[in-house]
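Appendix B. Chain record.
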Amino acid sequence: MGVFRYIKQVLSVLFVVLPLCMSAQQDTVLLNCNTTLTSCDLMLYDSGGENGNYSNNENYTLRVYGTGTNGMVVDIISLNTESQTVDYISIYEGESMNSEFLVASLGGQVEDSVFFLESNCVTIRFRSDNSINRAGFVIRIHCQRNCQEYSQNILYDGIYEEGHIICNSSSIVSNPIFYNNNVEYEQSIENTFFRWNVINEYREVSGMGLNTLDGLSPGMHLICLSTFDVANCIVSSDTMLFVVMNEPDLSLSGVPEIARLDDTLVISCDVSMDWDYSSTSGCITASEITSFDTIIHGFPADAVVNDINDIEAICLEMEHSYLGDLEVWITCPSGNRMEIFKGYDSFITHINIFMGEPIDDDPESCMAGVPYNYCWTHDASQSILDVAANPPTYTYTDNAGNYYSNHMYIPAGDYIPSGDWSSLLGCPLNGDWRIFFADSIAMDDGFLFSFSMQFNSELYEDTAATPIYEDYDFAWNGHGIISGQDGSSTILVSGEEPGLQEYTVSVTNNYGCTYDTTFTIYFCSPDYVETFITECDSAEYNGVVYYESGDYMVGAVCGDEEVLHLTINHSVDTAVYVNNFGDYEWNDETFVESGTYTMVLQGNSGCDSIVTLHLTITDIAEFESEKILLYPNPADDIINIVSEARISNVEIVSPIGKLVFGSPVDADSAYLDIRNLPSGAYFAKIWFGNDKLPAVMKFVKR
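Structure tokens predicted for this chain:
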């Protein structure tokens, strides 16, 4: 279900109950025939009602006579039709379509359009063609009364230039000021209807007396508010930019799980926060016009695009199945439009070209594929359609498991837009920049992952709205805080009594937003029992099996605590590969044949380890021609190796095959410093410049 369809349904429900609060005379009408009515409060739906679509080939007219004397109001709450050229509404101030036009051929997607009539009669015509039909419309028609002036009085936490900075848990509140209350009628928050429009999320929150908007996600939001008092007098705010902070990360250091009462602990808190907000993302809906926002701020309040190079790039991280049914354009905060590209002009030629790595046959609607990054810049050398004339191919498997072979696609990169950059001259830099996708065929969809714009950095003001956390912004609560309780990011703590103690640290930034986190420490009496255990791989104590080293509290009754200091050493399985000449002696055992042998040895940690020896024994006769001498043996500090053949490398290996060290030689003799080796038996592996296996000679370090 599309965004606007959803809004229509929500608003329909809201306004069905609205008469109970505002007028007992409100009528509900479906426009499914030519009708004339007399009413001062009427809710008008298309022929499909609040939950259905209108039908094809409709051509109906509604004439409404108001019973008041101050004119009428036509409030288009939502309108969702195929296109203003084929399915549309026209509004006339008067008794027929020969009366004065208020609006002609209003179609597509429209919200919150209000028309005020001086006369007490309005004529509305709706027409649809014989193709696609959509959710239709919700329109309220009511009589005007003499309005009592009032203001919305919107409250928020703080302000930065044109944007309002608010905490992530804050609400936006409107407390209207009724300047002339009870002169002609009673005004109050309870009988005022509030319609909050979160523009960048295509979301409305509305209801009688609903003067609070909360639940905003971190990031930037464009918000406006329309209010309707009991006489249906409307006050609408300007569009406001609200920046909702992310909750910072409060990371603690120096916090043990267990501490002695006589310990002095140093505990610190560090604050980090992500201040980089991304634009909206989501599905590029098939057979729809879909739009996404990126909200720009940080420029001087009145800054505009004075030169086409003020905008350096427009970038989309996206995927889409077919290029040939896609049109993309951008609008700036003042509504100026520039075409990015228009594949639909060459539908037949470019229909089967992909962007990114999409899922062409979605197992579920709008499943995201893999995006590529496409940017439109001034210095690009080609357009999307230039590449589409002779596209490259790729082979990939999509996120749903579908395989594509030698499929045409548009590579990531920089491109020339199809429109003229000069069409954006005069656009405000700050505000809502919106990207539009028109997907003209129902057989595919796409997904936008991010939408960003790059501006000339010299245009920015040095006024970044960055939250700041100083030492004096910290406050701590808990038992036994010796110093630093207020105004420090570090405290000293000592336990006052045994048991589990809870602590809270809070920090307030320069915008008045306060965040906190809680932690606990278990304090033991100085006379608690300590048990030290070292085991291999795992240990069982008091019926509990432990697999990792650590300090564990055993028993939780103050005065009878026991802290288990547990060391777990893990066994190690080792494979040793040895090439030897003649018999091989290993751990007091002599091997005379090649093979694989297994031994269980005790490692340095005291845990048994399984060592597998892969032994290759070579006849010593192969090396008789290369006489080798190793001396002294046993040795204390240095061993000498002399050979008739040229030595390329010497390695010293422990009895279990571990390489102790190696040294390149490139000579017929070598001497090795072994004074730092522990006493014991070792093997010298002597390599030569030929392709033969190394000679292995055993020696003893005293």
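Further analysis of this model is presented in Appendix C.
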